[in-house]
Amino acid sequence: MTVRPVAPADAARSFLKLGVSTLALIVAAPVCAQSVAVVPAPNSGTADTAAQQAQDNAEPGDIVVTGFRAALENAVAEKKNRDLVVESVSAEDIGKLPDASIAESIARLPGVTSQRVNGRSNAISIRGFAPDFSTTLLNGREQTSTGDNRAVEYDQYPAEVVNQVLIYKTANAALIGQGLSGTVDLKTIRPLDYGKRVFSVGARGTYADIGKLNAGSKDFGYRASATYVDQFADDTIGVALSASYLNEPYQIQEGNAWGYAPVTVNGASANVIGGSKSYVTSTTLKRLGLSGTLQWKMSDTFTSTLDGFYSDFNDDQIKRGIELPLQSGANPSLTNAVVNNGLVTSGTFSGVEGVVRNDSFQRKAKLYSFGYNGKYKGDDGWSALIDLSYSRTDRDEVTLETYSGTGYGQGNGATDTLGFTTGRNGTVFQPTLNYSDPNLIQLTDPLGWGGTTRQAGYYNDRKVTDEIKQYRVEIEREVETPIVHAIRFGLNYTDHAKSLAPNEAFVTLPGGATIAPLPQQYRQTPTDLTYLGLGPMLSYDPRALLAGGVYTLTPNTSPDVPAKAYTTTEHLMTAYLQADLRAQIGAAELTGNIGVQAVGTEQKSRGLVYNGTGFNTIVQGDDYWDILPGANLSLRLPSDWVFRVAAARQMMRPRFDDMRVALSYGFDTAQGIISGNGGNPFLRPIRSNSYDVTIEKYFGTRGYLAAQGFYKDLKSFVYNLEQPYDYTGLPLPASLPVGIPLQGRITRPINGTGGTIYGVELAGTLPLGQVVGFLDGFGLTGGGSYTKTEITPTPGGEPEDIPGYSRWVANGTAFFEKWGLNIRGSVRYRSTFVGELSGFGANRVRRRAIDETIVDGQIGYDFQDGTFKGLSLFVQGQNLTDTPFVTTNGGQRDQVIDYQSYGRRFLAGFTYRF
C-alpha cells in the first residue's frame, strides 16, 4: 500500500470544472414552462413557520391539517424547497416529535439507521457509515459529545425540546462543521418566527414488560415536559422556554460467549463455546434538559437571538451474571459432545470454576451550550450576521467490577459440572452448584487474575472533557444577474479541545485477605438467571461494599493506564465563498449554489510517552489546509418534478483516540529493534469526492416520490498498521543495548488510500386520500436503500464492511389520522452489519450483528373542540415483536457471541396545549 498526501489544489480545480460543466449542461437542457416559488437558502426560516401561519390564517370551514400529517407536510416542503439533498423530521406540535427519542425519529428517514445500545437508539449511521463519519449541530452550531470521540449520542438531547431535525446529505460551502456521510442539525423553536403564544405540558409513563431483573430495579418510569412560547412589545421580543425530565428503566437479558474454540470430537474437528460471560442488566436513565431562546427584533433590519441548552444526564447500571471459563479455560474437560455441522451443540463440561460477577456502571454527563446570533438584513440587498457559540461536556464514567467464587485462585474450591445446549439463541446451561449460596460463593479472586495483587475486582474511572468555542461572521449581497442572485462570504473560527483522564485500580480485600464471606447486611435478593439455565446467583451492590470498607482500591501502576490519556486540540479557520443561483429556463427554474471552503487546521495532542522505565510528556501535531469546493443544482419543472445534481469535496476528521500522542515502546529482544504502539497526532482527515443525483416528484406539499443515488470516492482513509518509526529525540529505553539503531517499528493509525461506497435510496410520502377519495386520512411514508462498499479497512486486504454499514436498509410507516383519531404502525429493517460495542476498559469491540426488524406502533386521540380542546392522549408500543440484538462469530449464524433481549416497552401519556 502506498501512503501519500492528497493534493487539495488538484481537487479544487476538478470540482470547479465539474460545477461549471454541469451548470452548462442543465441550462442547455430543453424544459417546459411555468414559474415556481423562490427557494429559501439553507439558513432561512423553516417550513414549520409557514405551516403554522397557514393554520393561524385559516378561515372557518377551511381544512387545516395538524398532527402527524402536518409534520409530514412540513418535511415534504422542507425537502422540496431546499437546494441540498435533505431529509427532515418536524414536531407534530410543540414539544412533540413523532417518537420517544430523537435517534428513533431520525432512524426512520431514508438512508439512515441506528444501532441499539442497552435497548435504545442513541447513535445513527447515514448512508452506510459509522456515526463517527457524520456531525451534529444544534441550531447550526457544532456540539460537543458525551462519547469518547466526535459522534453525538442523542440520549443527551430530549426530544421534547427539539422542534425540527434536518439531515443534509450533500455539502454546502456555507454549512460549517459538516460531516462526510451527512450533517444532522437539531433546531429549537424561534419564538418570533413561531408568532403566537403557547403553553404546553406533557407527561408519559413507561413500562418495560421484561420485568425487574435485578433487586432494587424498576419496570415503570416516567417523563414530563413543559414549553412556553410568547411574544412581547408589539412582537419585537420573543421568548421560548422548554424543560424536560426523564426517569426511565431499561432491562436487558444478555447472553455472551467468549468465542468458539477448536476441539476434536470422535477424530473430527469442531468448534465449541470457549466460555460465557452473561449478565442481566438493569439501567435507570435520568435526564434533565433545559432550553431557552430570547429573540429581539431591535429594528426592521436587525434581529438578535440568544439561546442556551443544558442537559444533566445520569446513566446508572447494575450488571449481574456468572463468567464461565469452558473450552478456553485451563481445567474444564468436555464429554458427551454432540456435533452438528461442525459445531458442538450439546455436551458436558466438568471442572468448571465460575466467577460470580456483581458489576456497576455509572455515567454522569453535563452538557452546556450557548449561542448568540445577530442578523442584519437591509433594504438595499445587503445582509450580514455574527454568530458566537460555546459548547462543553463534562463526563465522569465509573465502572466497578467485583468477583466472587468458591475459592481463591485457580484449582482451589468447588468446581461445577455443566451440561449445555448451544443454538441460535446462544447457550443454555444445566449447573450442579448453587451460585446463590453465601456459604459457597465468597468474595475473592477465583481465577487468580490479579496475580500477587489478589484482585477481587477492578475499578475504572474515566473523566472526559469536551469543549468547543466558535466564532462566525458572514456578509451577503443580492445581485441582479441572469443566474446569480446572491453572493455570500464568511469566516468561521473553531477552537475544539477534548481530553481523557483515566484512573484505574484493583479492587482488593482489606489486610491482604484472599477470601471473605459477603456480610449479611449487604446481601440482596438473588438475581434470577433462569433464562441461561443457571438459576439464582448471589447478589449485592458493589458500590455499597466499597463505601462500607469491605473493599479497598489499590492503584494500577501499569504504564498502559496513563498511555490511554490524551488532550487533543484543534484550531480551525474556515473561509467560504458561495454564489446562490436562480435562473429562469423557459418557464422552469434552475436554483442552487456553487462555492468553496478553505479550511486551515492546526492540531496538537499532548500525552505521556512510556520508554520502558518512566514517562515523559510530549506534544506533537500538524497543520494543513483543505480546499473543499461544492455545487448543488436543482432543476424545478412546472409539473412539480425536481432534478438535482451535487458534487463536492468532503472530509471527516479522525477519531480523537486515534490522534492521541501517547506512545508505549521498548526494546523487542526477539526482533532486536525498538517496537511500540500508540496514536498518531499527525493524522489527516478522511477525504472524499462525493456525487449525488436525485429525481423527485411532488404532489404539492402533501406527498412525494424520490430516487436518490450517491457515490463517494474516498481518497484517504485511516488504518491501523505497523510501519517504520524513527525514535530519535524521544527518551530511550533503559534496556536498549549500545549500537541499536533508533529506526524501529510502531503500530498505530495511519492515512492511506480508501475505496468507494455508493448506493440508491427510494423514498416517498403518499397521502392515499389524494389517490382514492374514500381513503382520506390514510397514508404511507418511508423508504429503502441499497448501499455497496468497496472500502478496504485492512491495508492490502480485500474490501470489507466498515462499522455501521448495512447493505439494505428499509423503513415504513402506515398511518390514519382523521376526526382527532391517529393510528400508526412503523417498521424498521437493516441487514447484517458490523456493530461497535464497548469492551473491557471501554475499548472498542467490533462484531458482526445479524439483520433486525423492529416494529413500533401508536394510537392516540386529539380533542379538537369543547372543554378538552388542546388535549392529546396516546399509547405507544416499542419493539413489539421483542426483536433481540444478536452478534455472531465471523458471520456464522449458529455461533452466537451476543444475544441481548430488551423486551417490549409501552408508553402512555398526554400533552395539553393551552
Outline of the structure:
This protein is 7% helix and 57% strand. The protein contains six helices and 46 strands.
How would you characterize the largest beta sheet? 22 strands, antiparallel, barrel
Class by helix and strand content? Answer: mainly beta
- Bin the helical content: under 10%
Query: How many whole angstroms does the radius of gyration measure?
Result: 29 Å
- The end-to-end span amounts to 65 Å
Helix count, DSSP H or I runs of 4 or more residues: 6
Strand residue content:
over 45%
Shape: globular
* Parts with pLDDT < 50 across at least 5 consecutive residues: 1-64
E-strand count = 46
Mean pLDDT value: 87
Which helices and strands, and how do they pair?
Blueprint: H1 8-28, H2 47-56, H3 67-81, E1 86-90, H4 102-106, E2 112-117, E3 120-126, E4 134-138, E5 141-142, E6 164-168, E7 182-187, H5 191-194, E8 198-208, E9 220-232, E10 237-265, E11 268-297, E12 302-325, E13 333-340, E14 343-352, E15 355-377, E16 382-405, E17 416-423, E18 426-430, E19 442-444, E20 457-478, E21 484-508, E22 515-516, E23 524-528, E24 536-539, H6 542-547, E25 552-555, E26 566-585, E27 588-610, E28 615-636, E29 641-652, E30 663-668, E31 673-678, E32 686-699, E33 703-714, E34 717-726, E35 743-752, E36 755-767, E37 778-789, E38 808-818, E39 821-830, E40 833-838, E41 844-849, E42 852-862, E43 871-878, E44 885-889, E45 892-901, E46 905-913
Parallel strand pairs: 4-7, 27-30, 31-35
Antiparallel strand pairs: 1-6, 2-3, 4-5, 6-7, 8-9, 8-46, 9-10, 10-11, 10-45, 11-12, 12-15, 13-14, 14-17, 15-16, 16-19, 16-20, 17-18, 19-22, 20-21, 21-25, 21-26, 23-24, 26-27, 27-28, 28-29, 29-32, 30-31, 32-33, 33-36, 34-35, 36-37, 37-38, 38-39, 39-42, 40-41, 41-44, 42-43, 43-46, 44-45
